[in-house]
Amino acid sequence: MSLDWDVRMQTLLLNFVLATFLFLSAIQDGNAGITSSFIRSEWPSVDIPLDNEVFAVSNGHNAPQQVHITQGDYDGKAVIISWVTPDEPGPSKVQYGKSDNKYQFSAEGTVTNYTFYQYKSGYIHHCLIEGLEYNTKYYYRIGSGDSSREFWFVTPPIVGRDVPYKFGIIGDLGQTYNSLSTLDHYMKSGAQTVLFVGDLSYADRYQYNDVGIRWDSWGRFLERSAAYQPWIWSAGNHEIEYMPHMGEVVPFKSYLHRYTTPYLASKSSSPLWYSIRRASAHIIVLSSYSPFVKYTPQYQWLKEELKRVDRDKTPWLIVLMHVPLYSSNEGHYMEGESMRAVFESSFIHYKVDAVFAGHVHAYERSYRFSNTDYNITSGNRYPIPDKAAPVYITVGDGGNQEGLASRFFEPQPEYSAFREASYGHSTLEIMNRTHAIYHWNRNDDGKKVPTDSFVLHNQYWGKNRRRRKLKKNFVSNVVGRLATDL
Ligand SMILES: *[C@@H]1O[C@H](CO)[C@@H](O)[C@H](O)[C@H]1NC(C)=O
Ligand SMILES: *[C@@H]1O[C@H](CO)[C@@H](O)[C@H](O)[C@H]1NC(C)=O
Ligand SMILES: *[C@@H]1O[C@H](CO)[C@@H](O)[C@H](O)[C@H]1NC(C)=O
Ligand SMILES: [Fe+2]
């Protein structure tokens, strides 16, 4: 055992030295991107067994479980509270108020259930509570009698220009020991709301009735965070669950029954794409797996929603989607190209600050680059530095059972600023209209280790009011170099 320990410590030390060396040499290279060589021993990529305490069912007959909340309206004065009762429907009522154990108000929700193969879901409740005060702690109670349960949440400050707020960004979470480590680390970050970039439970890796059972376990796993602060949902490929061999052909069936979004408040026609405003941020959620080309509902909606963005009220414009538009990982390579071709020029036109995605099980951050000059008659095919472009960040590193996507293309493309195949989560701490502090936190054994961080300058309020400048030299350099390589 002590031998193992020594070897492990030596490996860790070596990796640290290597990573430091790479980091320092990258600094000397000026803007060259960093491919971190940090390799750490991970928990095995296996799901936590169902009898583990992280999935524990609360005591009492028909006790509510899998409690989670999300924003319930456009501006943060409403919350949707969701939960599951296992034995019978029971009440869909939420009692709530501003002090513990004193519930002046109540709201009535709805209940639904579904089958998946022969699995029958519990009774899934969704209750919208509206007209809340901003910046206020509310306590709430659900369930009945002895088995009722109590939680709390804090509403966001009123939407406004210099309102500070701290978001967490998590993707591809699953339910392994690595997922638990990510969630534990996230919960220590002090962030107030999770922007989730798709692939929730990975229940679709199971067969037959186990699919539904693993959705339930994931709901219980997540409750420690999601019952107390909103998770803003977007859908990934693991939510599609098109499984004809089991007779299940309705896409997103489990996901849409269990996780609701306030899509009507942003005039969307589908819970899969929508937007919310929270503090000083306008958050747009897109669906990589719903039609998005010109003339489709998602395309039309986005076009209108981008016009509604008011940077005086919400200086920060953030887009979430599952499939990254810029990624130099071999995993899922170029799956985002079709959406990039459709939306990239709008993101630049509307000065999107950051685009967060998941899907690729690694971490990667881009410089401000664009590739909008490419079309099928133009020869300009290389992404070029573009101060008007968003930063693209992939955080598909939540820790699911598929493991890490550890192979990156070499050499690191010019657009890629930092990439590393480790598990972790990000935070975006908005300070005011011009500055936000961004961190990527790699999970480490028991400690929170910040590894990639920078100040995100607002694209609209930034002091040089960034104009779009295409560096002609850069393009000819790249073309020239490729020519000599061949
Ligand atoms: C939903 O629950 C009701 C009441 O228990 C039951 O009769 C019905 O079959 C269930 N529906 C589905 C789709 O499971
Ligand atoms: C496509 O590229 C060509 C050559 O750069 C350019 O002249 C043309 O305007 C572009 N077309 C579109 C629709 O962007
Ligand atoms: C925003 O915060 C940053 C960092 O604290 C500060 O340097 C900057 O002056 C602030 N900008 C405004 C407009 O308050
Ligand atoms: Fe995915």
TrEMBL record:
Domain Calcineurin-like phosphoesterase: 166-363
Group of enzyme by EC: hydrolase
Protein species of origin: Acacia crassicarpa
Signal sequence annotation: 1-32
UniProt protein name: Purple acid phosphatase
Entry EC number(s): 3.1.3.2
Gene3D superfamilies linked to this entry: 3.60.21.10, Purple acid phosphatase-like, N-terminal
Purple acid phosphatase N-terminal domain ranges (all copies): 64-155
UniProt GO MF annotations: acid phosphatase activity; transition metal ion binding
